[in-house]
Amino acid sequence: MDLTVDSSQSHHCQPTSDREHPAGDGTTVNAGTDARIAAAEKVSGDQSVVHSTDTHPEVALPVHNLTVEDILKWHSLPRELITALSGGTLASGLERLLTFGDLPVAPGKPIAFSGASGSGKTMALAKLAVRLSQQNVAGQRPPLVVACDTTPGSFAKLVTILDPYNVQVIDGKDLPNEIPEILKSKRTASRRVLVDLPGVCIYNQTAMSRISDIIRVLNSSLCVVIPAGMDPEEAADIASAMSMIGAKYVIGSRLEQSGRIGGLLTAAACGLTMTYGSHSEHITKGFSLLTPNVAAKRLLNLPS
User: Fold this and answer.
1) Which value, in Å, is the radius of gyration of the alpha carbons in the chain?
2) What share of the chain is helix, strand, coil (3-state, %, to 5)?
3) 183 secondary structure, DSSP code
4) Who's near 212: CB < 8 A, 6+ residues apart?
5) Coil, strand, or helix at residue 195?
6) Which has the closest alpha carbon to 164: 149, 142, 138?
7) How far apart are CA 148 and CA 204, in angstroms?
8) Which CATH architecture has domain 100-300?
């Protein structure tokens, strides 16, 4: 279904404003704003950026009299990112502003997945695990998944999802205090390891400390999962907080369920590499690398 916005109402689609959040010690923080502004200023300093109202020539706009700015406002991007992205085409603006790439999945180098509860984190991890298990690479064993979430039923759910695809799931609920024996084995060094971290509230210092300790103990890379429809300011705060404990990558989840993806783009603008997008509830479908062109098309079209 195409994105339909009444252009006469577009001035009501204001981007979210900067705002402060309470920290655990009673002070206030605005974690994502500085990172977003820095990213926007870096692009705005490029003389090739022309702040105009040109429409995107590569993908037909769903409503012909909408500008690039109108589309970005509809997705609730912050003002400074709209300004940075509005010169030229959507795809070229995204390529200038954001970093796109793949996850560095390799034997002996675990990747941990983090996100708020209900963000689609576990499903994104499961999709990647299935994809890796189906790759016919000589000498590569199926990936190993470490389930650290202590939510009742979460371990059993992962096992149920991944067992048909020959993906082993081990219980890591006692991490970081106790490391599962299999992770100490030399044989595991030749396996690709994905870690399903507990769903976390970034304002909960105890929970964040546990996440950080697990990452440290397992020497993991950290990938943040941001769902479509998330408020961009909240996404910026999550991306900034996770970056402080080592996050370098972001996955977009539930792209088939919500129209607006301003939160995902804002998180990536905080310095995270945009990797995959999950756009189907099916475990073996709808998990694709995001590129500037793919992201631009998704900005212009709602899920159907």
Assistant:
1) 20
2) 40, 15, 45
3) H
4) 245, 246
5) strand
6) 142
7) 17
8) 3-Layer(aba) Sandwich (3.40)
The token pair at 31 is: 């974690």
> What are the residue ranges spanned by the domains of the chain?
100-300
CA dihedral (24, 25, 26, 27) positive or negative: negative
Query: Measured between alpha carbons, how far is 300 from 194 in angstroms, rounded to an integer?
Result: 33
Cα–Cα nearest to 270, from 249, 240, 247, 246:
240
Q: What digits encode the pLDDT tens for the residues 195-241?
A: 999 999 999 999 999 999 999 999 999 999 999 999 999 999 999 99
Written as six digits, the tokens of 41 are 């200023």
Amino acid symbol at 260: R
Return the closest-CA partner of residue 41 out of 293, 250, 269. Answer: 269
Does the predicted TM-score (pTM) go above 0.90? no
Under 8 Å between Cβ of 111 and 103: yes
Cα separation of 272 and 185, whole Å? 32
The predicted-structure confidence for 270-298, as pLDDT tens digits, reads as follows 999 999 999 999 999 999 999 999 999 99
| 8 Å CB contact between 244 and 35 | no
First to last CA, the chain: 5
